[in-house]
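Case study B.
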Amino acid sequence: MTTTIPSPYSDLIIGTAPPNRRRDTIDVFDPSCGKPLSSVPDATVEDALAAVDAAALAFGSWRARSPRERAEVLQRCWELMNERKDEIATLISSENGKTLSDALGEVAYAAEFFRWYAEEAVRATGQLGSSPNGANQIMVSYEPIGVAVLVTPWNFPAAMATRKIAPALAAGCPVVLKPASETPLTSYLIARICADAGVPDGVVNVVTTSRSGEVVRAMLHDPRVRALSFTGSTEVGRALLHEAADTVLKTSMELGGNAPFIVLDDAVPDEVIDGLMIAKMRNGGQACTAANRIYVHRSLVEKISGLLADRFSALTIGPGTDPATECGPLINDRAVDKIDSLVESAVAAGARILTGGERPPREGSFYAPTVLVDVPPQADIVREEIFGPIASIIAFDSDEEVIRAANDTHLGLAAYVYTADLRRGLRMAGELEAGMVAVNRGLLSDPAAPFGGVKESGLGREGGTEGMLEFMESKYIATSW
Ligand code: NAP
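Model:
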């Protein structure tokens, strides 16, 4: 394959593009300084369909492998990711900007999907029953759906890929992964690790492109593709659902969030702050599960906002690859502009800045960790997904009021509740319209748990037992003994 990819990343690039064809490339930038890091192939529709060819060709032999054989390959992927964790984390930090400790956390989480689905691969069961009138037996088995197209975002370039690749491979499906243009290098490294672990050619394919709309549309209209697993914004997810309707694809949609973080009057402030630092600041706030609206009981607002401002203002800002950094850059300058305008409009609507509220005077896509109080409930910063290091604090007076406010959104991915009374927390968890609720915890992602949202935050679940079923179809056979 002819590319202009400079060392040290050039040997990562594997794919199925026709050899010896001159191709365009996409530059990949380091968001901490804006300088190019590397470049990757800019695939055309023809290249993407070549990847679908390779996947379709590999399907028969991969599904024919025994579940135990597939499990052993996935187990090896987990081992290799752990052996190479520092290399992967450095690459994630370089192209995404997150801190090394966040990147190492992501690698551990990403690798766990291979281990979990190695264990699940051998547990795909069926059912046997009899029809109510006794006329026949009902046998149900689960089969791999076929070639799956995976489209992933830039905020967790390793975990969003393995959360899809591992269950698909466990189910017996080959995949074509289309990663975000900002963070393609991590995907190539993961594909390389899969190959090194023994995943056969054609089972994991990576297509990087600057024409995502056109390229993904072409793949979704190829009749050999039978599933689409997408993680990204609700806006793009909605458009892809329309596309997927044409060929009636099975879709799994992990979309945007607007998580409420609720602090009840009996919560322990130090525990709340520890939880908030994770729920708000993991990945510099660029997580779909990030605490977006921090509802604090009026009696605790002064205490919580003061403690949080102290922690935020003490954070060391810098490039993610510097081990001393506690808050890295945002993904690009567009993200900084968006956050800046959200903060400005919140202040214009009456919010007060306790710390931050500005771009630090340095090169790169940085925004200072910011705490806002007195945020009016109707401000844009409350209605929109912030995706940055901004804690937006809103006071409330009663449980009923805060539940109503928390549910007043078209999104419903994650929610958080802090209280000293577990019974009260669990009751509130039942009333919150979200796919996932953390009670007295700032982190809820777990490969063994079903991850996903309600309302316009998505369809389907990743992780847990449910994650593998997204890549399988049931087959019912009627018979009489
Ligand atoms: P995005 O703009 O929706 O992009 C996601 C992926 O879709 C990228 O690979 C992108 O490629 C591709 N894409 C963009 N337009 C497309 C089109 N018309 N057709 C096909 N593919 C297209 O989202 P993002 O900015 O990368 O990620 C942030 C969003 O993801 C946030 O809303 C966040 O909440 C959500 N997210 C959700 C979860 C979850 O599990 N629910 C997890 C992480 C992130 P290009 O990069 O080439 O444009």
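The radius of gyration is 23 Å. The remaining cases will be described in the next quarterly update.
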